[in-house]
Amino acid sequence: MLRGFILLVALSAGAIAAWMSMGASGALTAATAREDIEAMPRMAEILVASTNLSSGALVGPTALRWQVWPEEALNPAFITRDDRPDAVHEMDGLVVRNGFLAGEPILDAKLSAADAGALSVMLASGKRAVAVRVSAENSAGGFVLPNDRVDILLTTSQVNSSGKNTVSSRVILQNVKVLAVDQMSDGVSEAVVGRTATLELTAAQVEILTAAEATGALSLALRSLADSFETTEVTTAEKRTVRIRRGSEVDVVELD
């Protein structure tokens, strides 16, 4: 009988210990879960592009969608669902000024009203669009496309004091953005030999270009993509001359 009593006490103690262990484990699991939830970043929903949107495209009802985004990574320019729940419908029919990639956050500054001109909505603030005459010979063989960057050269011919024809060429503007070739402004992926190129310039650059076009011939030199984001300056180097003999006439060409 004593053995039975001892066995009963041992079993009871084991059961109590197991119950206490399970309770402690459950409390620890709940505490860990709460910590995990608190450690998770708070999320918001922002408006993004559903597909690639090129410059000049109209925003349709399926072009935008809401995307979950960490609150700590929010930019004040982003459009959140909490602030503007009807933004998808509000932006229906707007024009894209600068292209979006699929999944890229939508910014008000990159959209414009549809009643504005297609080219004017693509112009950056303070910029002007100016068209210049081009050909395959003066536009990198016709390989200048919209959104390329070019340098603009002016070539002039003058008769010097000795009666000789002097030809000189120099860079007047650098790193200029090409907005359009003829009337094609975006989405062009093949070479186009156009008759006009529309360039994005500041007001001061417009004056320089207009005066230059009246005094000589303009040429566009295509820049490498690697150089398109560099800020460059025009430097004046010592001029060199080359004499070209054509029969009895001698032309002096200045090289900048």
TrEMBL record:
Residues 1-17 form the signal peptide. The keyword Magnesium does not apply. The keyword Cell inner membrane does not apply. Pfam families: RcpC, SAF. Coiled coil: none annotated. Keywords: Signal. Residues 44-112 form the SAF domain. This is Flp pilus assembly protein CpaB.
